[in-house]
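Notes continue from the previous slide.

Worked example: a multi-chain complex. Inputs as given:
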Amino acid sequence: MNRRKIIEERVFRILSAIATYSLVATLAFIIILIFVKGFNALSWDMVVKTPKGGYYYGGEGGVLNAIVGSLYISIGAILIAALIGIPAALYINVHLARYKRTQNAIRYILDALWGVPSIVYGAFGFALMLFLGMNASLLAGIITVALLILPIVVRTFDEVLCTIPKGLHEATLALGSTRAEMAFKIIFKQGFPGLITALLLAFGRGIGDAASVLFTAGYTDLIPTNLDEPAATLPLAIFFQLSSPIPEVRERAFAAAAILTIIILIISLIARFLSKMYSKTNLK
Amino acid sequence: MYPLKEEMIIHDKAMDLINNEIDVDSILQISNLNVYAGDHHILKNVNLKIPKNKVTVLLGPSGCGKTTLLKSMNRLTDIYKELVVTGHIYIDNDDILNTSKNVSSIRQKMGLLGQRPYPLPMSIYKNVAYGIKLKGVRDKKLIDYNVEKHLKEVGLWDEVKDRLHDTPDSLSIGQQQRLCLARGLAVKPRMILADEPTSALDPISSKIIENLFKDLKQHYTIVLVTHVLRQAVRLADNVVFMYNGEIVEQGAPDKLFKNPQTSTLKAYMVDGN
């Protein structure tokens, strides 16, 4: 190998390494900052108590209302998104396999929807809410977040299904499967790890989004016991506390952010474990 | 306009009758099969009879339409939007291209073996059981019996009997190909459609598959697509040489290869060896 090639190889290796590690360092820095700044305020009370009187002026209590509200909304939204998104992605790949133009049109629309800012979904959800005569509620929040994350679920799952070789489609049909049997018994199973990725991505977006729930789920210090009651969410809890002039309350905002991060970490660990368990027999 | 159209239909039907005269020796008859992909005429007026319990080899260079011909036989051409298929393919006196019967039951008359193995994303056992269950069998003992029987039929039983519930990934690619064959046989087909089934395999695994075909032809009709001349010589009872979407020559291999009638086959034999 000549000298020029050796230098070229080294330079590119170093540049890619810098790109990778600076990215990791930045993300690590954000997480560390959240934990350091919120460390003082992070207490068991934060997690198990709802805000008491004067909480937002530094009084007693915690953000249990927001934790529960956020989990309710994101889990509800994920369930709806999975229920609609899974058949949609399978339909695009199995039944529309012969109709490339329709397939592409649908993908294009979903990609566009993916890019729509969440405040627009919030506004749409709000308009829908008024139209149906609903109040700001858990249900309205769930529906709005479900709409927000549906394109993510469908397109991410769809991208994975696209990579399944045509040979597997042929083999399955040749055995006498109908298209529906192929979609739900074979293609779904082969694409399952991709579905988990899709749902995780959507979950992270859903639980972390503030704009879509601002008008639709509202905010409350109570834990909702019914679908038509308003619900607090962690992003909004962070927002309200961060805009406080009192330093202790701002610290609590970081503590709430730390809790949100921990929730996402726990859920993604569980999901990856389940995905591994379920896809043991998949083709590599 | 109408009388002309009617006459054409009558003419077509007469031609069909001639082409489809009752033929006890052939299991599948193809008449006037044309396949187009846009402007590209992939198969040009193919007429062919597949003899029962024989190995018919579709031989020819890449891109000559042999795989398309094979996939027309179980209507896998359906899943490719760009393909337009016209003509008739009869099996059991049923024109599968123009039938109201469900396609799944037609496909179950033929087992497919692809260029490389595509095991289903489930255990070795379930791969074989899948097709049996599709046929409506629920009796666990009967399924067990059939799984064992067909894994034995392809000589895989002793190699996998202790790890039936493992992933097929733990098998070599040659074993996976035999698993796919067993899976196809479990549906109880009458034919085996094999599309260059040894092209991804090492010589030893290829040999195993070839020997299996020699045994299996007692019970099944085999259609094998290959571009390897020597494989055709080794396996074929009947060779169909295709070129550019047309059947150029066909016949018993010893006759065909000893005395090729066309320059295309002569050239192919020179280049193929």
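Summary box: The longest strand of chain B covers residues 26-37. The CA atoms of residues 122 and 184 of chain B lie 15 Å apart.
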